[in-house]
User: Fold this.
Amino acid sequence: MTLQKSDPEIAKLIGREEKRQREGLEMIPSENYVSAAVRQATGSVLANKYSEGYPGKRYYQGNGIIDAIENLAIARFKKLFNVAFVNVQPYSGSPANAAVYFALLALGDKIMGMALSSGGHLTHGHPKITFSGKYFNSVQYTVDENGWINYDKLQEQVLIEKPKILVCGTTSYPRVLEFARFKKIADSVGAILLADISHIAGLVVAGVHPSPIPFADVVMTTTHKTLRGPRGAILMTNNEEMAAKIDRAVFPGLQGGPHENVIAAMAVAAKEAGTSEFRAYAKQIVANAKVLSEVIIKNKIALVSGGTDNHLIMIDLKNFGLTGKDTAEKLEEAGIVTNKNAVPNDPLPPAISSGIRLGTPAITTRGMKEPEMKLIGDWIADVIFSRRPVGAVKKDVLDLCRKFPI
Ligand SMILES: *Cc1c(COP(=O)(O)O)cnc(C)c1O
Assistant:
């Protein structure tokens, strides 16, 4: 029986969400549109199977085919990232980071990650309200007042703090991460380096952002952001001993049965990401972000760090006395979906904030290029400065979206 027949209530809501995704500009930089093939694998019968354990070492019968699928996913990611060991079972990015800490640290050991307010992730040691800040001794580093990582200052802080693990990787840093420098800094105190490339993994496999694989001890990425796969995460390392610890931490340490439907969809996404089409796509994400940032700057709107090297842009609204919350809501009314975000030295709390974070991965998947970025940049300024009625911008957004079907 189809969903429409068996559960019209949910079917209708899914239909409405599909329309929302079709008719708006999805500019949250951690979101994307996956291929029909990825969706088909995600919704497949593989979701019915229990397969606790790893290929060749399962706790249930009937896993021969599942083993072939998981092995294929692992092999494809090894090749894609040029790495020796891959675990494809983490349910998502946050549990994957938890697995790394549980694998390589003892409770109370010192984690040093970038502060949430600077672009770090909650799981990088955010104090008080997260497991990483509660059960480990967390110290945090920040970006400078212009939004850049100051590697010399980081080196000084690391020498004082001597963390057991240094975490690099961000959710809202528009600049290149210098993994070689992070590694040198971690090595200066014998710390493990965890690179969390959740946001930039698609750029890394396409060669438009340097890879952390030659430098970091462990690399984590989600598979659903620029990598354009299903919601999930993978853990990678070239260190055999760490690989064994990570495997045990993921299962049985933290998780139960793996989501093999998602793992199959990851394998599909890994195959797609190895194509020349994907490399061109990732290059276009960055080219689009560059043009978009230039148009926004031309409209006299400040950007954190003054621009972008990657897929995302951070608008700083402090000079205008506008809040990120109100502006993001107004942009959504115009069909431009972004999120509020803290900026360096933000006087407002995170739930209100003074910044807007936006990115180009999803609209680039729709096929939009430089000419469309010029339009969108001006529309964003129209909304921020109330230069045109929101409804007029929304109409333009809708016309553009119809020209670029998903
Ligand atoms: C998205 C993200 C995560 C967490 O991923 P979830 O799948 O949402 O748990 C972790 N780290 C970084 C840097 C991210 O961008």
